[in-house]
Amino acid sequence: MTQEHIAVHPVPERLLNAPCPKPHISSLDDYRQLWQESVDNPDKFFGDRARELLTWFKPFQTVRHGSLDEGDVAWFLEGEINACYNAVDRHALKNPNKVAIIHEGDEPDQVRKITYGELLREVCRVANVLKNLGVRKGDNVIVYMPMIPETLVALLACARVGAVHSVVFAGFSAESLRDRVKDSSARVVLTSDEGRRGGKNIATKRIVDDALNDQRDLNVEHVVVFRRTGTPVPWVEDRDVWWHEETAKVRSFCPPEPMNAEDPLFLLYTSGSTGTPKGIQHSTGGYMLGAMLSLKYIFDYQENDVYACMADVGWITGHTYLTYGPLLNGATTVVFESTPTYPNPSRFWELIQKHKITQFYTAPTAIRALRRLGDQWLEGYDLSSLRVIGSVGEPINPEAWDWYNEKVGRNQCAVVDTYWQTETGSIIISPLPGATPTKPGSATLPFFGIKPLILDPTTGKEITAVDETGVLAIAQPWPSMARTVYNNHSRFLETYLKPYPGFYFTGDGASRDKDGYIWIRGRVDDVINVSGHRLSTAEIESALVQHQAVAEAAVIGGHDDLTGQCIHAFVSLKPNLDTADGLEKELTLQVRKIIGPFATPKRIYVVPDHPKTRSGKIMRRILRKIVNGEQDQLGDISTLADPSVVQVLIEKVHGSN
Ligand code: 6R9
């Protein structure tokens, strides 16, 4: 495929001239030179920046250690540092009255501003509460909370005492939460009575109770509950404590714990090819540098900016670009509790106008949904404060990119399509606002320290040909890369480092065009991306087969104009169960209960059998083609155990005409 027809958008003139602040990097040559330095001499490049941007309690001697071959990557070895001190204290000491967090509540008139000084005191109180509850350096703490400033406080308080936070997205079901609590052996869970979203209350505490109701193999001793709505909630004596009561008892200062740069800062569970989610573990020093540096350059953060990321704290974007990236830079970050369409589809634009937002970061699925609802929702809003608008989570189609650029950016903003993953810690491929001409649909060029390669999936050899698709790998370690999978280093090696020895394997397909721009083609493994949420097919299949009627399930990703991909499930039933009234509904509920509502299948087909090889392996490739209307391109199906099943499936999906 060639990209000749794709328009190239130069950096908007407006960004290079007053009154816009001068971009940190304002030409492609400057970017190229810095990038070259960063990959040729990472020790100097990252060593200098780690000293300049971060405040260390004890300096490091060694910048970089280990290799992708060995899987023992470490950065800033001897350095001692605290993430909370860097994100909060140093700004609070210099500039206590600067607003750190703007909370835009679910209702547009609920706005709360928290200064760095206030943030420091609240973080210290919660840190002291954690200590009183017995949390010590190195302990894992689960956070299951809605989009309120206290969630950021919870993360920072963990970091302050050296505990490892593990946020579970509050859309996950009790069962998913339970699995994560168990895997992490956490003794403390932080939550709220309820959440608020789109005018509805969400029963956060009740879900925590359900997750913990059978304590047999769990170690949870305490649940700290923040009062968000005031709705009465069940209480477990001796286990549950109120956030406001405990914080009122303790001092509003708590010394930050000096941590080794390689001590873990957090775990974040994510879906991979196999059934059980993995606890991706990030370091303290390297992660912080990645978050701080990328936010500064990729969003061209300047003092006095008001930065807004719409992601939930439950995902990696909410960690790096809602919490750590902005706060490490001393920025004002917006925490948005609601949805893009509540109370109406002007909500984002109203938010931008009200707070004079300068950087706005959201996902293609939201952009597509708002585009579909019509341009009238943008009319009359003043979006002129914006300089950089970003996209993340999945490939952005050129139509959505153009709309975002024209309607939201008014052709006067840099559009940054940022490619990265939970495992990469921070953005690894993206334009820089003042430097990189953009092409709709391409994440463009690598960030500092990132040396991307396109590999032939079968031979593992580098593909240098233009526009040829292969798998995306990274050739050398970078500071914010994940260090391991919690309690399962061999799984880390098997998934990321062994498939192509010497390289980090992303799991995504990609190609490079004649200008060296990278085009991400989507996952090459069994991961589905629905509205930017990562799900493994195996995880959904395992939820389906837990239903007593189901014999076998196969899940694939279909194309969807709105959500990017959507879930199609094919289930075969146990003998004598070929008619089952209401089964589809039951199975839908089953998936929602076991994983969470965001994993709801779009279609469930009850089928007599699956297309299988003679050795019994389900050929998901065939199901994928049928669902995506490519049933005329199935290729050779004669090797199937029963080729006749294919016609039955086509009729199931597309009807018999
Ligand atoms: C940050 C985040 C990672 C997967 C990744 C890829 C997809 C993310 C993208 C993109 C194309 C982009 N992805 N950003 N694909 N263009 N700009 O989303 O992390 O939840 O771990 O998902 O998302 O497939 O491998 P995570």
UniProtKB/TrEMBL annotation:
Its EC number is 6.2.1.1. Pfam families: ACAS_N (PF16177), AMP-binding (PF00501), AMP-binding_C (PF13193). The keyword Ligase applies. One of its GO terms (molecular function) is acetate-CoA ligase activity. Keywords: ATP-binding, Ligase, Nucleotide-binding. SUPFAM superfamilies: Acetyl-CoA synthetase-like (SSF56801). Residues 89-478 form the AMP-dependent synthetase/ligase domain. It is an enzyme of class 6 (ligase). Signal peptide: none annotated. This is Acetyl-coenzyme A synthetase. It comes from Hesseltinella vesiculosa.
